[in-house]
Write a structure and sequence with these properties.
Keywords: 2Fe-2S, Iron, Iron-sulfur, Metal-binding, Oxidoreductase. GO terms for molecular function: 2 iron, 2 sulfur cluster binding; isoquinoline 1-oxidoreductase activity; metal ion binding. This is Isoquinoline 1-oxidoreductase subunit alpha. Its EC number is 1.3.99.16. This protein has six helices and five strands. With 153 residues, it is of the alpha+beta class. The chain has two domains: 75 residues, Ubiquitin-like (UB roll); 69 residues, [2Fe-2S]-binding domain (DNA polymerase, domain 1), CATH 1.10.150. It has a five-stranded mixed β-sheet with strand order 2-1-5-3-4. β1 and β2 form a beta hairpin. α3 crosses α6 and α4 crosses α6. The mean pLDDT is 95.
Length: 153
């Protein structure tokens, strides 16, 4: 069974089918319920986590493929909410229902890590796979721009 690091802690997973999606390992085996189930086919982005710093849909990543990798969930992004994206989300009052927000935040954090000065087109392109049923896209964009600016300081 795979050995990996989740939120900075080494984890050895035993007695799991290696085809089990990471999402269910996080939620059911490790009780990290911040990562949400949305669609189960990697289309909505609610289940986004970072694998070695890259935003990935945890519903479509088999746990057996993660040997030696580093996984970061919303719980590990910043436990005290001090990550620039988390702070901007609160300041801009982004969430409405909030269901998609952990995936949105994880994608936004990956965007800013890879592109510290995103413009509207870069945000739209990178975040396009994250669906918000409430339509808070203008606030999401504003929060990403604000977080990117804070991260650069």
């Amino acid at each position: 069974m795979p050995k990996l690091t989740i939120n900075g802690e080494p984890v050895e997973l035993t007695d799991l089918d290696p085809r089990t999606p990471l999402l269910w390992v996080l939620r059911d085996s490790l009780n990290l319920t911040g990562t949400k189930f949305g669609c189960g086919i990697a289309q909505c982005g609610a289940c986004t986590v970072h694998v070695n710093g890259t935003a990935m849909r945890s519903c479509s990543v088999a746990i057996g493929s993660l040997e030696g990798r580093e996984v970061t969930t919303i719980e590990g992004l910043s436990p005290d909410g001090s990550h620039p994206v988390q702070k901007a989300w609160a300041q801009m009052n982004v969430p409405q229902c909030g269901y998609c927000q952990t995936g949105q935040i994880m994608s936004a954090a990956a965007l800013i890590a890879s592109n510290p000065e995103p413009d509207d087109d870069a945000i739209d392109s990178f975040m396009g796979g994250n669906i918000c049923r409430c339509g808070t896209y203008p606030r999401i964009r504003a929060a990403i721009l604000s977080a990117a600016q804070e991260a650069r300081q």
